[in-house]
Design goal:
This protein has helices spanning 2-22, 52-59, 63-70, 80-87, 91-97, 167-176, 187-196; strands at 40-44, 104-108, 110-114, 117-121, 137-139, 143-146, 152-160, 180-181, 204-205, 216-224, 237-238, 278-282, 291-294, 312-317. Helix content is 22%, strand content 20%. Bound molecules: calcium ion (3 copies).
Length: 324
Amino acid sequence: MLKRISFLLMISLLILTLVACATSENPVTEVPTTVEAGTTNETTTGMEQPDLAAAAEQLGVTEEALKEALGDPSQGAPDLAAAAESLGVTTEALENAMGTTEETVTVDTYTATINDIDFEITYELFTWSDLPSDVVYERQPVQSYTDTDGTTHWYEAVYVESGNLNWYQAANLAQDAGGYLASITSEDENNFVFNLVSDEKYFWSFDEDGEHYGISIGPFLGGYQPEGSVEPDGSWSWLSGEEWNYTNWAVNLDDGVIDQDPRDNTQPNDSGDDGQPIMGFGEMNVPVATWGDYMENVGTYGKTRLPGLSYGFVIEYEADPLGS
Ligand SMILES: [Ca+2]
Ligand SMILES: [Ca+2]
Ligand SMILES: [Ca+2]
């Protein structure tokens, strides 16, 4: 299954690269990070998948060689020029052989209310009953936890094997389940929640040799910055409405093990161009209980481009969802 998912992901990334190449004069419009209500934005989705066997035949190589040349899909879009060189063909020939068509859909900016909070977004939201079939997930057993103040809440980790739900999409599912993305107000609660998702499978990593030094993005938590917040650290809030009185942002270590990024990666760092208004566990080279702020389109359904995928989130409930 994982192989199949990886393969599909690789295909998607490849298509994206090809679309980007094919439309370099008229670049695919990315959904802007700051959008006015009522504006219309275009995004790409539902693209046709290339026939790798046919492409290989056209290029005069084996399908296996073609797959190998395209590389590990978990490490981002393939370098087509390098792939072409290793296959002994021109980049143009490879692009032609992998030819795809692009379908453009229109996404209107709209107000989505999640846990009584209004967000202006362009993302399609789902409920558990209408999740697309290519969202592959596994809901883990609900566990209760009693904080030092005597409050008992219930928690459910969701592993999204397909990596294709962004923070808003995850938050909407948490609400649909009767809870909210985990909103953490103490070190003990943070440790409890982290232990539910400390497995590496919940973390997506950048390429170790790339500009982000293999830094990983972990499962989503319920922190967000309302529109118009002062960056990088203004107005962080919890979806639960609880006070933002405890934080555990990642602090630059440069120890070469947990933090292999030679840059100062203390969080929140607003890295990227959208102010990084959402957050989750990470942003180190191994799974950690610290937090990073992330670009809001990480893991967006229907998109496979960087900045990466998201393999999970944690739902918190104030009452036992099983009613026991
Ligand atoms: Ca909580
Ligand atoms: Ca560092
Ligand atoms: Ca960050």
